[in-house]
TrEMBL record:
Family matches, as InterPro entries: ASHA1/2-like_C, START-like_dom_sf
Family: Belongs to the AHA1 family.
Domain Activator of Hsp90 ATPase homologue 1/2-like C-terminal: start-end pairs: 12-146
Protein name: Activator of Hsp90 ATPase homologue 1/2-like C-terminal domain-containing protein
Organism annotation: Rhodanobacter panaciterrae
Length: 157
């Protein structure tokens, strides 16, 4: 098993559009399927309620690390932390980096989630497998979101 997940997708949208889909908390929530409580701010915890069927009991939590406009959005979280009765706060977190590169009129979005080697052994393999599958789905979700048009807002999509 690798210590990192890496996914890459070419989106038919300019970097500015993809950046907004990643970093506007309402748009992020629309494609990521989480009802975010407020804007993303570096150094602050972002919290929301997952809306994906079967996971509505999960509170989404991440700490925003970097927001380098139209280039890098990164955060840390506890991977596949879905059990409501488990305290994950003492576990190490993984780092998610969402990098944007212009390619003509398109944007190449690269996702890297790293740090699985530090996740407790009893959770590591399942967290990696579930997040690997989850990120594959989320890359398609953001593709559909930005392909839905220039979209000034995410409401109603």
């Amino acid at each position: 098993m690798s210590d990192r997940i890496e996914k890459r997708i070419e989106l038919k949208a300019p970097v500015s559009r993809v950046w907004r889909a990643l970093t506007d908390y309402r748009e992020f929530g629309a494609w990521f399927r989480v009802n975010m409580s407020g804007p993303f701010e570096p150094g602050k915890e972002a919290i929301g309620q997952i809306t994906h069927p079967g996971y509505e009991h999960v509170t989404w939590r991440a700490v925003v690390q970097k927001m380098e406009p139209e280039r890098l959005f990164s955060f840390t979280w506890h991977p596949y932390a879905i059990e409501p009765d488990v305290d994950y706060s003492t576990e190490p977190q993984t780092l998610i980096e969402l990098r944007l590169e212009p390619k003509g009129e398109c944007t190449v979005l690269t996702l890297i989630e790293s740090g699985f080697d530090s996740i407790p052994a009893h959770r590591r393999a399942e967290a990696f497998r579930m997040n690997d599958n989850g990120w594959a789905q989320q890359m398609e979700n953001i593709r559909r979101h930005v392909d839905a048009g220039s979209g000034e807002t995410a409401h109603g999509r």
